[in-house]
Structure formats: C-alpha cells, structure tokens
Amino acid sequence: MITAEALIDLNAIKLNYQQLSQQNNHQPLIAVIKGDAYGHGAIKIAKALPNANKFAVARLEEALQLRHAGINQPILLLEGCFNGQDLQLASQFQLDITIHHHQQLIDLENYPLVNPVTVWVKVDTGMHRLGFSPYEISDVVARIRRTNKIKGEVGFISHFSNADEPDNPKTEQQIASFTRATQTYAGNKSIANSAGLLFWPHAHMDIARTGIALYGISPSAEHTGTDHNLTPVMTLTSRLIAIRKHAANEPVGYGEAWRSPTDTHIGVIAFGYGDGYPRLVPTNTPVYINGRTVPIVGRVSMDMMTVDLGSAHQDKVGDTVELWGQHLPIEHVAKNLGTIPYELTIKLTSRVHQRFIPEE
Ligand SMILES: *Cc1c(COP(=O)(O)O)cnc(C)c1O
C-alpha cells in the first residue's frame, strides 16, 4: 500500500496557466519550473504546458534534463552560465542565457558558439543579489552586441524583493529604476514574478516569470491560491498506520515534547522529516482527516508523525490524511510552520510517491 503520496493535478496546472494568461490580456508568460517544478515534477509539468511561451530554470543541468525529455520550447537559464563550457552547451541546446556578471560577459566574448544565443541582461534594481547596476547597462549591452553571437535584441530582466507586500513602495521604485535603465532599448523586458503579476499588474511589461502561482499557491502569506482564482496543483497525503489510546499527562514521542492534557487517541501517520515535513512543528499545526483538521502533537520523527484524534473520533487505520492541498491550504500550513509554501513543496524527498492525474 502506498502511504506518502503527492497527487499532482496536471489539469490544474493547465487551468492556472490559462487563468494567469487571461488575467493579463494573454501577454506572454515564462513558466518557472526550476527545482523540479518546485517539487511537482518538471518534465510532467512542462509537457502539460505546450502553450507556455518559455520555461525558466535556475541551472544548466535542469535545462538539459528538459531537453533530453523532448521539451523544445525556449528555456531561460535564470542565473546564466557559470563558465565557458556551460555557455557552449547553452548555445548547442538553444537555451536563453542571463548575463548578470562581468565574467559571463567575458565568456561570451571569448568562447566560440555553434548557435547564436538569446541574451537577457540582469539589472539590479534593488534586490542587490545579482545583476549590473543601472549605470553599467549601456556598456554591457554594447559589448554583448559587438560579439555578434546573439539572436535578436538583448533582453532585460530584474527581480522584485518585496512584491508580495502590496503596501510597500519598494516595488514602484524598482519598476521606475528598471524602466529608466532599459527604456531606450528595443529588447524584451521582464521584471514580474508571481507576486508582481498578481499584485502589480503594470509590472507585467513584455513577459512575466511566474512560478509559485502556476502551482496554485499564493505568493502572499495573507492569501491562498483560490483568492486569485488559482487551483492547488499538489495534494499531499499519507495514511494512518496506528491509532492508540493515550492517557492524560502521558508524553508522546522523542524528548517527551508534548503531553496530553486529557485522555485521548493518538493517530500515527506514515510521514516524517524523511519525507520532507519539517521536524519541529509548533503546536496546533493541522492535518486534515475525515472532514476535519486535527493537530500534530509531539516531535515529528523520520518516518512518522503523531496527531491528537480526540477521544470521540471515528477514524480507522488505513484512512487517508491530507497534509496540504485541496482541503488544507498549503499557505496556512506554511504560515503555521514559520516558512513559505515554496520551501515545503521543494523539500519533499524521493520517498514521496508522485502520482499524476490524468494518468497517461
Ligand atoms: C524563482 C524565480 C522566479 C519565480 O518566482 P515566483 O515567486 O515563484 O513566481 C522569477 N524570477 C526569478 C529570477 C526567479 O529566480
């Protein structure tokens, strides 16, 4: 019997793509599928999105796996290439590259390429992680053009630091800085991530890069995907493998981290930190079972977690438990755990069985 299982709804991913596209007047979208599509299975997700204008991943190896799986749409390397050999592979496999650093520019100048590449220059508008400062852009663009190794116009990307906070003026400052730095160039401009797309619609520019929203998850801890008319793609479940009578004042699990105030029944679920659930969970972190939520109690162990089913429950060994998804928004679970949904889905381990619907 399969216990830990991530059910991935490929119809939901198609619907979310359509929804985001419609909300933005059918302007182009880059589907961000780095990190194995945030733990949803990048190849299956990419195949479910034949209309995506472009995909984006963080690293070359991720893009090569997609190419080997027969994904032929454009793929953008969000961090570009880290040496000349990688650049040559990017050219061979027709990957769009980002140039955010001087060494990447020097590699483009020095290495012979089999195909011209599509180049995006990264502008640092205030994230201060990657990118050239606005005053450097004209020199960088001139040098890129002189290489004669590029396809079309040089494009421009930047990244928001606070777009999930609708009241934060930082986002408008970043939009203004990006516009000033790039407005004299004809190439495509892209600054919006999911939060930019959902909360700052004028940030869409020529093409937006959407990751988390595609998976039906809100980029904001104050919302859920359904607030944006999105459908959760992943439902994570496991099973009850034991139900035990538990006396008041008795502890449960490692370190006796929790004691029951009353007589109750403890349910044991086959899902632990070895499957990717955080080990330290605040009291009252919920799971969903048989139409209600119950709290996780005690420390999560490698293969199991314990929940307080209450004294009057009707649950049976073998019943399905939802850890997040259709009935229990991942945004609520993440907030309770002091993290963000991105970290929860991407940290699921290979022990969690992935089941895709519709099946092929
Ligand atoms: C991951 C990433 C995105 C997607 O962000 P979401 O919040 O998931 O939409 C967009 N742009 C860059 C540069 C990224 O690294």
UniProtKB/TrEMBL annotation:
Catalytic residues (UniProt): 34 (proton acceptor), 254 (proton acceptor)
EC number: 5.1.1.1
An MF annotation (GO) of this entry: alanine racemase activity
Top-rank EC class of the record's enzyme: isomerase
Cofactor (UniProt): pyridoxal 5'-phosphate
Keyword annotations of the record: Isomerase, Pyridoxal phosphate
Reaction it catalyzes: L-alanine = D-alanine
Chain positions recorded as substrate binding sites: 129, 302
Annotated ranges, domain Alanine racemase C-terminal: 233-357
InterPro entries given in the database record: Ala_racemase (IPR000821), Ala_racemase/Decarboxylase_C (IPR009006), Ala_racemase_C (IPR011079), Ala_racemase_N (IPR001608), Ala_racemase_pyridoxalP-BS (IPR020622), PLP-binding_barrel (IPR029066)
Taxonomy, superkingdom: Bacteria
Signal peptide annotation: none
Family: Belongs to the alanine racemase family.
Record protein name field: Alanine racemase
Gene expressing this chain: alr
